[in-house]
Amino acid sequence: MCGIVGLFLKNPKLEPQLGAMLSKMLETMTDRGPDSAGFAVYGSDGASDAGSVKLTLRGPGPAALRSAVAKMEAALALSAEATERDTHTVLAVPAERENEIRVWLKGNAPGIDVVSAGRRMEIYKEVGLPASVAERFALEGMAGTHGIGHTRMATESAVTTNGAHPFSTGTDECLVHNGSLSNHNDLRRRLRHEGLSFATQNDTEVAAGYLSWRMREGASLQEALESSLTDLDGFFTFVVGTETGFAVVRDPIACKPAVMAETDDYVAFGSEYRALVGLPGIDTARVFEPEPAKVYAWERTSAEHASGERQ
Questions:
Q1: Cross-strand partners of 42
Q2: Residues labelled as active-site residues
Q3: Under-70 pLDDT residues of the chain
Q4: What pLDDT does residue 307 have?
Q5: pLDDT at position 309, please?
Q6: Hey, which of 23, 95, 155, 161 would disulfide with 53, CB 3.0 to 4.6 Å?
Q7: Where are the beta strands (DSSP E) in the chain?
């Protein structure tokens, strides 16, 4: 059993409150996942210039991360803007040097992992109660256009930070999952032949990789999720974020709980309705259970406009 939350803002005036709202939603799902928690936030501003990418690094602590970054800057003769948050550090680096930096860190900085890369996305996750994880990374003060979160109750593998969600396998792409996939080992082998790599044995990372591969081949987020309904076996509810998009899909059986709310200001997802009750205007929102085997997707087409599912 796990808990999922997601919030996609249509009204830019709410962007300064994204972290505060998402934090409360995440904490409400504590009893569905007390072992670890994580979240992805898509910041309003993004990287400082068009040629930059944000790398979110995870390590044992601030001192170890600071030391690794300093050594990397010296070795590669570059200067990276760094934002420290407990066991994570976000670096703004030239996009054309991302692979070079990843290779250096893998070979020279044991215990330092790259959690995500994106123009706007930052991912944070740790072992512990959701409220503690949110507080350690100061989620409540974060601003942005959309975010997703996950609380994990480990049932088939150890309680580790590597097993926490969200998982990211592409730039500005991430996924959280409630359920289990039965064909993830076969799919992992197929995706490795397509050039994807995986850091864990987790089935959710394979699902994220599958969507990244489909979008790399030209599919839209909605098309990639529609394909997942035939290519993935098992029980799943996915909530997915991209740089400008937010989407939800449930498998054809849809045995995992899910509820959504939509107003003129936002779209929200929760594993249970109580995750949504603190949102503004929830009393007049259109509240509904997402149908099985149907993709719900929203896209931000400009800073002032969002489009997508509405019934």
A1: 121, 146
A2: 2
A3: 46-49, 156, 302-311
A4: 64
A5: 61
A6: 95
A7: 2-9, 36-42, 52-58, 81-85, 88-94, 113-118, 121-127, 146-152, 167-170, 173-181, 234-241, 245-250, 259-262, 266-270, 286-288, 296-302, 305-308
